[in-house]
Amino acid sequence: MRALNYLFKKNRNWAESIKADDPEFFRKLSQQQSPSYLWIGCSDSRVPANQIVGLLPGELFVHRNVANVVVHTDLNCLSTVQFAIDVLKVKHIIVCGHYGCTGVRAALRGERLGLIDNWLRHVQDVRLKHEAQLIAISNEEQRWDRLCELNVIEQVMNVCQTTVVQDSWERGQEITVHGWIYKVQDGLLRDLNICITKPKEISIVYQSALYPG
């Protein structure tokens, strides 16, 4: 059990199935990495980034953390964004949350889970910022869903306000930031109506996403 041999067996089966479809796949993959997309998502094991959008290894650059949070002091996340934009030349940054996020629920309820409480403080800030909208939703599950959506919207804004993205727009690089959410129960993505391609769009698109239709 110490070697987790069953996972190595699964790995061999996976590699063999890939090579059966394309004998040159791994050779070609090892020689380049040229994704068009950066995915910033939740660490939740039920939300596998590549599989959700049907992309192969090498086609999606990924950063994940609990509750898909983008913090301006998180050098891990910011370095990933900078590498994706400046080195890989991605054209799209996708912030993707998911309904049923345990981290978001803890922030909504004010639950104490340990060290992670300090990280989820950022989601609690989102809750407090939009408290009036959330209080108006009487059903707790629907309120939870809406906080999951609002958290994505706020993290999109955080991405757009990073110096890396701002600098890329200033020099004319094409970067589009999207906000999506995934539903584990049906496996489908939903667009949260927040898609920003330049600084002057930020305010109007943000307001439209907060109060859709």
Alpha-carbon Rg, integer: 19 Å
Helix/sheet category: alpha/beta
Largest sheet: 5 strands, mixed
Q: Tell me how many strands there are.
A: 5
Task: Provide a count of the helices.
Answer: 10
End-to-end separation: 54 Å
Give the overall shape, derived from the CA principal axes: globular
Helix content: 40-55%
* % residues in beta strands: 15-25%
Quick overview of this protein structure:
The chain is of the alpha/beta class and about 210 residues long. The chain has ten helices and five strands; from the N terminus they run ααβαβαβαααααββα. Helices cover about 50% and strands about 15% of the residues.
What secondary-structure arrangement, pairings included, does this model have?
Layout: H1 5-21, H2 25-30, E1 37-42, H3 49-52, E2 60-65, H4 75-87, E3 92-98, H5 102-109, H6 116-129, H7 131-135, H8 140-160, H9 163-170, E4 176-183, E5 188-196, H10 202-210
Parallel strand pairs: 1-2, 1-3, 3-4
Antiparallel strand pairs: 4-5
Helix pairs in contact: 5-6, 8-10
